[in-house]
Amino acid sequence: MEVIAIQKSALDGMKNELKALLELTEKATQKYTPIFKEEQWLDNQEVCLMMNITKRTLQTYKSKGLLPYSKLNRKNYYKLSDVRALLEAGQLDNTTEDGFIHE
Q1: Which of 32, 52, 62, 80 could cysteine-pair with 40, CB 3.0–4.6 Å?
Q2: Which residues belong to any copy of the Helix-turn-helix domain (predicted)?
Q3: Does residue 63 form part of some domain?
């Protein structure tokens, strides 16, 4: 076992920094927890499976503004309610394989 000695002031400083970090983490958790409790969020793969579409078609829906999304850590998430609304709206009935809508 290795023993490392540090000054008490350095240890106290580390404790204070860890306490501040813990407080920031708790505040962030309190801020965003209600958002995720209110709504179920889906990732790209889940949306593609649910809608029976390709990733390219999903990208087209995003680009055309048909399906709103949120980005978190370079990953897209979609509200389940938005996906269901798009499916129920029937806007996809005239969508071709390439994801474009032809009227």
Answers
A1: 80
A2: 41-89
A3: yes
